[in-house]
Amino acid sequence: MSSLTTEKKDWLLDSDPALRWQVQRDLLGDPADVWEATRDRIATAGFGARILSHQDPDGQWAGGAYFPSRERDLTGLGIVERDEDAQPWIATTWALKDLRDLGLNATALEGTAEKLAESSRWEYDDLPYWGGEVDVCINAFTLANGAWLGTDVSALAAWFPAHRLADGGWNCEAEEGNSVRSSFHSTLNAVVGMREYERLTGDTSLRATRHAGEEYLLERALMRRLSTGETVAPWVSEFIAPSRWQYSALAALDHFRAAVLLEGAAPDPRLAEAVELVRAARQPDGTWLQGEVPGGAVWVEIDAPQGEPSKWLTLIGTRVLDWWDASPH
Q1: Is 40 inside any structural domain?
Q2: Position 153 in a domain
Q3: What percent of the chain has pLDDT over 90?
Q4: Is there a contact between 142 and 153 (Cβ–Cβ < 8 Å)?
Q5: pTM tops 0.85, yes or no
Q6: In angstroms, how far is the first alpha carbon of the chain from the final one?
């Protein structure tokens, strides 16, 4: 049973279908037919429906693979402009990732994979969309998105073991020759993408590679430098929703929870310090507060402003702590 009060459960349930179905499944333990019915509404109501409504006829969003097309006139579409100088989150890869994270049933995007194979190219070297490019985070999002949409991304899957760095993880700067050290951000994105690929396809060929990347994070207690034991950076405890590409202890723990449930394993004891960091951030009323969300255009705001109670973070934080407290470790 969830540690949330009845009042806070009602607060979470009074929300978009994309959040409500996860509350029903992960915190309330409702029968599958209940949360699946709520999940089905994502395609027709709320955040999911809004993002879907902006898909281009060629299967893309905003006319681009990772960035909006410079030639495309996007005025009058109701885009939320938070900071015009920041990374926009409205192009194809981000729209697909958002929809997948929200829980949209892939059947709502029937034909999209084929359209993207035909019409979408990466801004990097004009490479074909489903083959990925050189950035590990982009490739991780694409691996998971492709598996979700049912297209063959097995060739992209083989990219991950071939590009793991000597210290165990990945870094998006590595392919440009700018780093030989792994990044917490890139490594988490990589293992999440591989986990989703396995969950969605049943292909376990990347499990050993994923475990190696997870070990990079575990031996650092999800938050510390291996060399000095110091906290790696303030962003470890800066919890935000949606997390997009950014690392935090909470985002990492939510991955390990999903990976353990996928494999039917027990949680690693080395998660304990990060768990207590998350527990300490919980407010007296059982909520977590929104951190500093990065700027950039979005199709829709899905969570609270900075400093206010976040329904998404409260869902994630509660399910992580409930899982940890109920598990043998």
Answers
A1: yes
A2: yes
A3: 92
A4: yes
A5: yes
A6: 19
